[in-house]
Amino acid sequence: MDPEEFRKAGHQVVDWIADYLANIRDYPVLPVTSPGQLAASLPPSAPEAGEPIERILDDFAERILPHVNHWNHPRFHGYFSVSASGPGILGEMLMSALNVNAMLWKSCPAATELEQVTLEWLRQWLDLPVGWFGIIYDTASTSVMHAIAAAREAAFPENRTGGGLRDAVCYTSAHAHNSFEKGAISLGIGQRNVRLIGVDDNFAMRADLLAAAVEEDRQAGRKPFCVCATVGTTSTTAIDPVAAIADIAEAAGMWLHVDAAYAGPTAILPEMRQHFAGCERADSFVLNPHKWLFTPIDISVLYTRRPDILKRAFSLGAEYLKTAQDSSAVNYMDYGVQLGRRFRALKLWFVMRYFGREGISAILRDHLEFAQELAGWIRADSRFEVMAPVSFSLVCFRLTSSNEANQRLLDAINASGRAFLSHTVLNGIFTLRFAIGNIKTNRDDLAGTWSQIQQCAAAL
Amino acid sequence: MDPEEFRKAGHQVVDWIADYLANIRDYPVLPVTSPGQLAASLPPSAPEAGEPIERILDDFAERILPHVNHWNHPRFHGYFSVSASGPGILGEMLMSALNVNAMLWKSCPAATELEQVTLEWLRQWLDLPVGWFGIIYDTASTSVMHAIAAAREAAFPENRTGGGLRDAVCYTSAHAHNSFEKGAISLGIGQRNVRLIGVDDNFAMRADLLAAAVEEDRQAGRKPFCVCATVGTTSTTAIDPVAAIADIAEAAGMWLHVDAAYAGPTAILPEMRQHFAGCERADSFVLNPHKWLFTPIDISVLYTRRPDILKRAFSLGAEYLKTAQDSSAVNYMDYGVQLGRRFRALKLWFVMRYFGREGISAILRDHLEFAQELAGWIRADSRFEVMAPVSFSLVCFRLTSSNEANQRLLDAINASGRAFLSHTVLNGIFTLRFAIGNIKTNRDDLAGTWSQIQQCAAAL
Fold first, then answer.
1. Which CATH architecture describes the domain B101-342?
2. What is the pLDDT of residue A318?
3. Are B364 and B266 in contact (CB under 8 A)?
């Protein structure tokens, strides 16, 4: 594709995106489709001869788009609601065009250094300790796996060479994201060595139960080495007592990882800092700019006070990757599984500069306020109940009725195409999750969706 | 950023990219910079107030770009040379704008189904066995780690629960990419249980040495479980004898993984298929469309004949991720570490349709031919020698002189800004690597770079 053909098609795509973003409310949030329907509508084989870009773009809009679940929609409230903000998309366009691989400083100095700079900027915004080392991974699942691997390296340095680690135990709450468990399984720790600690009435990890589990494992000759606290769990955005967990971790010589993948950005707000008390004592800390910092997926940031350990876990020389700057620059490939690394810092740099701390803070505050407002409406309607503390921008609620009725309510809301919510189960109780986080969600959307929910409930 | 502001800035960015691609030859391939230089030139903190997008774009061009190593440059011949083709960039723009997370079928049916469709199309092009299951990961490092994890699950199904696997041994060639070793270390296999098998004069794994190592490990009571053959190694693009390795793997009950991250796309060409003989017997097979299939980084494809095993290794239910389609659709999150998944299939779909099989084949044939041509020029100049068979598009060569002289030659070429090459060391001999793979490289570039190399050699 010559540059002029790219220019022409590129302008079309930009216009399409601008129109899409402008008219996003006209789309059904959730597509009406069933498994295999899109696949069956596409040719069984790729074309022999190339096709004009016009036709591909038309097919994208006519064939692919009707099967898209619109995460960009201001009434998308499933999972965690995220945003591809304009500056983030622009940054990603440039990343894609430059197409660098930032495995080494030398392979793209700009990518490595902008990663260092933007993560230092972000560290300041989050009020995390001076000197922490930041690195970008793709997803929080990858980040947490790296944190556990670093914890293993810290506690059992011989494991890297010898393997065969037995009875090494790690801990997290029963409400933690299952990527912690998956990471531990992947690393060969063994699922039976992952303790899912019970939670209190607010779904936060009980430090007393953690202490008891650690003690029991010690008594039995097992080796506690890692604990993961969560600030903002996936089901309910519960806040584990990080300071108390840090005490236990320190006493037991365990690595403390804090998963703030979703809620982390709120540490930018001074009034929210109390939720992060104790995080300054963590060995590693994760937040995802692609979740609630208006940066397109994927970008997860891990901070650690112990980059030397992370590097010891993952660095592995290869002659074809040696450079003259190996002692004077950071080669990010030494800090992780993945050799290939996109220039992800660029989109974060666009977002941070475009909005500034004030702009980001204002949006976060809106979302936090929307959640309180919604919770108020729910509490005011006697048919409904709020199921968990609303500490951030997620509201867990349900009809004061059967699980089956609530499942039907959820299905009715989602089938309407007017909003998309997801669910969780809390102590056996089917619960709807209303996650706020899209940059375009406004009060009208919120009120409209609540009214839609009320109508669906009335029609059950 | 409202849609109209995005539209305006988006058009500017498209124009910038089109100009960049049109004028790419005017840029020095390698920037003149040193560690810390860019970082020192940027503000120590992010802005409090948001900044106009104009200023950010200006800063990108004026401050960031001079520190970029231009992987897009047609004279970028380091590592493996890659391409962000126009249709690939357009696909990525749309991915970024849609910003879906394809963890579940339901979370974006289009992303899951287009992944299935494009990977089936690609499977046909590559002439891999009917029925193989395809999945997109970010990088080949991630793919190979998943392959080893699947091998572990196949051989030691109790490990997922119990951990503590000891004396499980895996094998690859001493010339394999070190991501295999890193993957095994990460998974807790232990570096000492990774055997790096010796190579023959062509840098291909010696099957007899593999057989002997497996036998020795068995005799010693250890448990061989996985072998990785490479078609197109990183240092020299050597081709391991896959069929002979498959015999050994079958006899020993080992999982056979084939790493064709770089060379895989050439299986599209019937005349190159002989290099892939035996791959049809693999348990898993990897190629990276971001390497030599003109798709922007990152996208790595893993095929496996045993998706059930891969799923058994990684699936882990969570209530908040259960859907009504769990039994009727593929939820790709069940097949890997990462929960978050971008809509990567979209950019591959753009590339495959835009070029078609004929278009892709023609470019690959050009690159293969360029490599032969270059090797011919090198052989015709008595100061130089070719150091390894030229089976694909990489030429390994050197001055018939000292290592130190060759290092100086490499530095001089790279310092010229006219071309970028990287190096390897073969049997202690410092060797230059000239990797061809950029879609814009033409015969003039090739001849110009060779002439530049000759001049640099003359000036030493």
1. 3-Layer(aba) Sandwich (3.40)
2. 79
3. yes
List the beta strands (DSSP E) in B241-305: 255-259, 284-287, 300-304
The 10s digit of each residue's pLDDT in B145-161 is 999 999 999 999 999 99
Q: What is the pLDDT of residues A314-330, one digit of tens each?
A: 999 778 788 889 889 99
pLDDT tens sequence across B325-348? 888 999 999 999 999 999 999 999
Q: Which of residues 220-259 of B touch A (CB under 8 A)?
A: 234-235
Q: Which of A105, A166, A338 to mutate to test the interface with B (most CBs of B within 10 A)?
A: A338
- Strands in B420-426's sheet, in edge-to-edge order, are B76-77, B420-426, B429-435, B394-399, B384-386
Q: Which residues of chain B are within 8 Å of residue A6 when distances are taken between CB atoms?
A: 14, 17-18, 21, 86, 89-90
Provide the edge-to-edge strand list for the sheet that holds A133-137.
A133-137, A300-304, A284-287, A255-259, A223-230, A168-173, A194-197
Q: Which of A15, A273, A253, A289 is nearest to A156 (CA)?
A: A253
Q: Tokens 């209303």, residue? A: A434
Helix axes A140-155, A307-314, angle to 10 degrees: 90
What distance in Å separates the CA atoms of residue B242 and residue B207, rounded to the nearest whole number? 9
* pLDDT score, position A153: 98
What is the pTM (predicted TM-score) of this model? 0.98
User: Of B178, B338, B170, B430, whose CA–CA distance to A315 is shortest?
Assistant: B178
Three-state SS for A199? strand
Under a CB-based contact definition with an 8 Å cutoff, are residues B69 and B31 in contact? yes
| Residues A158, A165: Cα–Cα separation, whole Å | 9
Scanning A182-221 for CB atoms below 8 A from B yields: 182-183, 185-193
CA A238 to chain centre: 15
List of chain B residues with pLDDT < 50 = none
CA angle A69-A73-A76, nearest 5°? 70
Q: Which residues of chain A have pLDDT under 70?
A: none
* d(CA A303, nearest CA chain B) in Å: 17
B396: β partners:
B433
DSSP class of residue B50 equals -
Residue among B91, B31, B83, B38 at smallest CA distance from B60: B38
With an 8 Å Cβ cutoff, is A431 touching chain B? no
Contact (Cβ atoms closer than 8 angstroms) between residue A163 and residue A386: no
SS3 (DSSP) at B416:
coil
* Residue B319: predicted pLDDT: 80
Judging contacts by C-beta atoms under 8 Å, the chain A residues touching residue B163 are: 165-166, 168, 188-193
> What residues in B contact A433, CB-CB < 8 Å?
320
Nearest to A164 by CA among B178, B193, B364, B142: B193
CA triple A377-A378-A384, angle to 5 deg: 150
Query: What 3-state DSSP class applies to B147?
Result: helix
Q: What is the pLDDT of residue A160?
A: 96
Angstrom distance (rounded) from CA A78 to CA B233 = 44
Separate counts of helices (H) and strands (E) for chain B: 15, 12
* Domain assignments of chain A as residue spans, ordered by start: 101-342
Chain A interface disruption, residue of B193, B196, B343, B354, most A CBs within 10 A: B354
In angstroms, rounded to a whole number, what is the distance separating the alpha carbons of residues A334 and A315? 4
Q: Of A427, A83, A64, whose CA–CA distance to A236 is shortest?
A: A427
The rounded distance, in Å, linking the Cα atoms of A204 and A388 is 11
Tell me if residue B365 falls in helix, strand or coil. helix
CA distance B442 to A319: 29
Between CA A378 and CA B186 the distance in angstroms is: 47
Whether the CA torsion B3, B9, B13, B19 is positive or negative: it is positive
Cis peptide before A444 (omega within 30 of 0): no
